Description:
This protein is of the alpha/beta class. 41% of the residues lie in helices and 10% in strands.
Amino acid sequence: MNARRRQIFFDTERGFLRRVIGFLGADTQYFLIETKRDTFMKATLKIAMTLAAIALAACSGLPSTSVPSAPTKVHAKTTEVKTLLWVGNSFFYYNNSMHGHVGRLLNAAGGKGFMAVSATISGSGMSWHDMESHFKPDAVGSYSFVGDNEVRFNKFDKPFDAMMMMDCSQCPVHPTLSPIFHESAKKHSATVRKHGAEPILFMSWAYSDKPEMTEPLAAEYVKAGKANNALVVPAGLSFANSLKKRPELSLIIEDKRHPSLMGTYLAACTVMASVYKQNPVGNKYTAGLPADVAAHLQAVAWETTQLFQAKEGRGSL
Length: 317
């Protein structure tokens, strides 16, 4: 090497270059020919790249110290729904919540071990909900109130067997929102199944002043159910069938959208028939409705569900 070349250490980089020499070995020397700042920076970059290459080569021969990832938990496929999460909007929570009426119907039929939780947002569509968050450990469903307001902490392999979703009342048939409905149904169905549960779609009903909504709504829910192999609850068809037989019964309140107690009870009976495969006819729980009205709504729910499932199937359930 030319003896006239001198080793240059800038004060600000002296420590770095010494560490470089120490890493590469005491016999290795790096010399910089020019003192210009830009030339020094280019040399520094070259040294850093050399160090990275040497470090990678050295590590390649060492045994791996990475911690193996935990195996993905495989849940048993849901064949019977005992725990159900309802995800929707005010159509679900009116009249002290539809899921509560379904629970009373199941209890009156002698059912044991059923649990339901409702997660609703007023006016919401399915795209508003974060389905992944409902499956967080020690979150939704981790405790419940029993007996004399006693808190019971629940232990389970998975929080829910199924999740029942509904979109906003006109989203599935709205020209702008319909594609979002189908995208959300696909996305949420995948999320639910990832956690070992099954997706269910709740078909809503037509507005009282727009009965022509019934068939388009039904068609979109059936389409989404087929695309995602999901059970569809034909509540909207139950409403239409009830009105054909007893038009004097007000299933919807004055706002022309939300259910009356009779409407909530009819939808609850349809859920019982669809999701739980139990005939509500003759059930002793009537939600305080007149006996003849309750009997009519029970019969309509069962008949509608049987005809609908004979034609469209039950999806994955």
